[in-house]
Structures are given as C-alpha cells and as structure tokens.
Design goal:
Helices cover 82% and strands 0% of the residues. The chain starts with a helix and ends with a helix. It contains 5 helices and no strands. With 143 residues, it is an all-alpha fold.
Length: 143
C-alpha cells in the first residue's frame, strides 16, 4: 500500500492530531518569522500552512461518520453562535460610556495591534468554549 493510500485511509483522529500539530507549528513559526522581519515571507508561510490545514480539515471531515459530523455541525452552529454572542456582550460591557476601560494586549501596551489581537483571540476563544460545551452536550444527550 502506498503512502498516499495510507494517508487517505487514516482514521479521523489521525487527521485531528496532524491538524493540532500544524496549529502549533503555525504559532511557533510565526514567532520565529517575526525575528526575520519580513512580512512577505511571514504571510507566505502562514498562507501555506492555512492551505494545508484546510486540506487536512477536508480529509478529516470525509473520514467522519454521520453522527460525528452532526455533532460538529450542531456544536459550531449553537455553541459557536452563543460564544460569539458572549464576545459581543463582553465588547459592549468593555466599551461602556467612557470607552475601553483597560489596557489591551499582553503587557498592557496600547498599540492598535494589541487591541486587534485581544479582540480576535477573545472572540475565537469564546466560540471554541461554546463549541466545546455544545459538542460535549450533544454526545451526552445522544448516549
């Protein structure tokens, strides 16, 4: 059996592990590329990793059975939506009548990129938390 055949027939969990490792590589590689101070190189490598992760995600999806697919769809729709709602509420509370009351970023910097990073990261983490709760709840309800 060729390597291609073995990769195509790999179980879904193997794709999930590979995608997790790719995510870690993206984070570590992005930090390493910032030291080079070449935004074109950093953007190109990041785009390549994103394309590889999208391909891996498609392969992962094809290997899932119907129940696992339904669990993911339910969790992303309901959990991700509720997480996004929480992020919107947090944004409204933090903005308040006086504007943003706390320093953004890691270390309290007030640079715009710190505010953008905190907003994106906060929204993603809220959606992942909502997804996780909904996914776990879906499996508990179906067992």
């Amino acid at each position: 059996m060729s390597l291609k055949d073995r990769l195509v027939r790999a179980p879904a969990w193997a794709y999930a592990v590979a995608l997790f490792i790719a995510g870690i590589a993206l984070g570590l590689g992005s930090d390493a590329l910032k030291a080079v101070d070449n935004p074109v190189l950093e953007g190109s490598v990041t785009a390549l990793i994103v394309v590889l992760v999208l391909g891996g995600s498609a392969a992962y999806w094809r290997r899932l059975d119907e129940a696992a697919r339904e669990a993911h769809k339910f969790a992303w729709y309901w959990g991700g939506s509720c997480g996004l709602g929480l992020a919107i509420v947090a944004f409204a509370v933090l903005m308040g009548p006086e504007g943003f009351p706390i320093d953004a970023g890691f270390g309290g910097g007030k640079e715009p990129e710190n505010f953008i990073a905190v907003g994106i990261l906060g929204t993603i983490l809220a959606q992942i938390a909502g997804y996780s709760v909904a996914w776990f709840g879906w499996w508990i309800a179906k067992r």
